[in-house]
Amino acid sequence: MYFRYEFKPSQMNGPVLVKVTSDSDTCATISIQNDLCPIHDLMYDIEYDGMFQSMTKVAALTVTPGFSTTNDFVVVVVVHPTDYTCEHLGHELLDQIRLNTTKPEPGPKPTPLFNQRKNVIISVETSMSYREYIF
């Protein structure tokens, strides 16, 4: 799932803080990407573009107006099939999923092995600019 955000004219001089919160401990990855095709919104490709962070309850990423040439970006949320990535150091499971992912066969879709769900709240707030931070 992903959501598009466009910088407001008043935000063009400084960064914004994208904050994602949840009451759930379910593991997910949050990604900030350019609003251009393709949008990487699958477990095996979410880390291909932009910046990303795994999360359980809170994630926060700073985005500057120069991040995208179109003055907008998308926030992508991908829920992991298990909580392993968030419970252990490293991304061993994510790496294994990438290596074992192939195009699906035609025909009926198989039943998912995992049924993880996560409700999130995404907020975008004006952050301090570098100049405000220094002075």
Question: Overview of this structure, please?
Answer:
The protein has helices spanning 84-87, 92-100, 130-134; strands spanning 2-6, 16-21, 28-34, 51-55, 58-63, 72-79, 121-126. The mean pLDDT is 80. By secondary structure, it is an alpha+beta fold. The strands form two sheets. A four-stranded antiparallel β-sheet has the order 1-6-3-4, with no helix packed on it. The chain is globular, with a radius of gyration of 17 Å. 13% of the residues lie in helices and 32% in strands.
What's the SSE blueprint?
Blueprint: E1 2-6, E2 16-21, E3 28-34, E4 51-55, E5 58-63, E6 72-79, H1 84-87, H2 92-100, E7 121-126, H3 130-134
Antiparallel strand pairs: 1-6, 2-5, 2-7, 3-4, 3-6
The helix fraction, in percent, is 10-25%
Query: Can you tell me the residue ranges where pLDDT is under 50 for at least 5 consecutive residues?
Result: none
Characterize the main sheet: 4 strands, antiparallel
Based on CA atoms alone, the radius of gyration comes out at 17 Å
Give the termini separation. 39 Å
Count the beta strands: 7
Shape: globular
Q: Helix/strand-derived class?
A: alpha+beta
Number of helices: 3
Strand content: 25-35%
Strand order of the largest sheet: 1-6-3-4
* Order of H and E elements: EEEEEEHHEH
What do the pLDDT scores average to? 80
